[in-house]
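Subject: Sanity check before I submit

Could someone independently write out the structure tokens for this chain? I want to compare against mine line by line before I put it in a report. The sequence has 340 residues.
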Amino acid sequence: METRKVQVTGGSTYTVSIPKSWANDNGVSAGSTVEFYPEGDSLFMTPTGDDDRTEGTLDITGLEGTELIRAVTTMYVSGFDVIVLESARITNDQRRTIREATQSLVGLEVLEETKGEIVIRDLLDSSELSIHNAVTRMRLIASSMLEDALLALRDLDRDLAADIIQRDDDVDRLWMVVSRIFRATLRTPKASEELGLPREICFDYHSSARQLERIGDHATKIAHLTLNIEREVPEEVLEALDDLHEEVVTVIDGGMDALFTDDSDEATKLANDVRERVREVDATARRIDELLRELDPARAQHLGLIVDSVSRSADYGGNIAETALQKAAPTPGSSSAHTE
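---
Independent answer below. Compare away.
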């Protein structure tokens, strides 16, 4: 860490020198323009670039299938606007996999293809992306998936179950968008300014989006289990599951409402209420487990896994409420934080 003294020039302008080593490393010299971004009691400075779009190159030699998809996804989430995939010779299978990966990520499109290179570009303007809207959309999709998963179970509706499994891709795409936006705010203060949100809030949204993605995963798990159930589920169990789901929805909605409100007192009240309701969900889940003991072991096992997935969704809603509590708490240096 280095320190500098603030000086006054011209009688009214504050000036401070910058470390020469930092200036050299970042191409800053006499006459260069730099950008300042205030955030709370901090002031971030960055060099002004001619082109904010970042390019990354990846050698995909030997990468196939899931491994190749994961590599492209990682480059996307890391924040590269232009992704260049290189190899001595890109195979047809690799090309198909790359197109599949590109179609599963928001904003990406293949721009150029040659024998040994594929160029992918993010066509979305980062300043137009909204992490709040992405998380809100995740909330709606994940909640509808969970509701429809139990409806599919009640009617043993295999078409609906298959649709829920497909909808999980929509949640995953939005999760990747949220991750990409969040990592951008860590990399440069300009991204946070364009979003109009402090980086701490972006972190809270990112953490909550992860919980919503997991709720979507459990709805998908219920749909897969439903596809393997041949006999109708006893009405008594279905009614108990409906009660459990109603309690879980209250937890998830309460957690998200606490996260999104700007009123700290209201957020604290909502979040604490959610924590109490999670205990009620656990009690309801135990009562259903008692009902399942009267069924044959195979059916009891399948339905037990479904009960577990529904109740775990409440746990994730509780995690969102915990994040909301942290968001509502005073921060060091704020007017509401006091030291003795």
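---
OP: Matches mine. For the report I'm noting this point. The domain at 128-328 is CATH 1.20.58.220 (Methane Monooxygenase Hydroxylase; Chain G, domain 1).
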